[in-house]
Amino acid sequence: MFYLKTVRFLLLFSFFSTLFFSSKLSAEIIIEDYWARVTPSGSGSVYMKIVNSNDEDDRLLSASSDQAGMVMIHRSIRDGDISKMIHVHDGILVPKKSSVKLKPGDYHLMLMNIKEGLSLGDKITVTLNFEKNSSITIDPIAKLRPPKMHKHK
């Protein structure tokens, strides 16, 4: 009798623990629709949609790539007839249960000193570093305009 109660308790405990922890594991940052634009001058930019399904805000703090000397978070802003690109030092807030788009004319990752030989159709490996979520590596393809097909968890 004691044995059956103990086994029943352990089974119920395991079941509810699995439910609790699996719901925590399913909350995550997802990167969608990522792509890159490269120029002959050795610079480029990376665009994407960052989806935060977590119950708390997160922040994209930085990015890196072995194929570029430096990756910086930038934002393009328009001031009258003048477009400016500013370096975003404090990262990009990704609100809980929401998303942020990095797109031309707004937030983007700026690739500086891209290694030679990178051209249209090539993949660029970029690692995204978040404040709370673990780092995520994506491989955007260098394009002239955005594709609408990539997802990465």
> Beta-sheet strand percentage?
over 45%
CATH topology: Immunoglobulin-like
Which architecture would the CATH scheme give at its second level? Sandwich
Q: Tally the helices: what do you get?
A: 1
Q: What's the number of domains?
A: 1
Rg, Cα atoms, Å: 21 Å
Total count of strands: 11
List the helices and strands and how they pair.
Blueprint: H1 2-26, E1 29-38, E2 44-52, E3 58-64, E4 68-79, E5 82-87, E6 92-94, E7 98-102, E8 107-114, E9 126-130, E10 136-138, E11 151-152
Written overview of the protein:
The protein has one helix spanning 2-26, and strands spanning 29-38, 44-52, 58-64, 68-79, 82-87, 92-94, 98-102, 107-114, 126-130, 136-138, 151-152. It has one domain (29-148): Immunoglobulin-like. The termini are far apart. It has 153 residues and is α+β, with helices and mostly antiparallel strands. Mean pLDDT is 84; it is low at 18-26. The protein has 1 helix and 11 strands. Strands 1, 2, 4, 5, 7, 8 and 11 form a 7-stranded antiparallel sheet that branches. The protein has a 4-stranded antiparallel sheet with strand order 6-3-9-10, with no helix packed on it.
Main attributes of the structure:
153 residues; alpha+beta; Immunoglobulin-like; 7-stranded antiparallel sheet
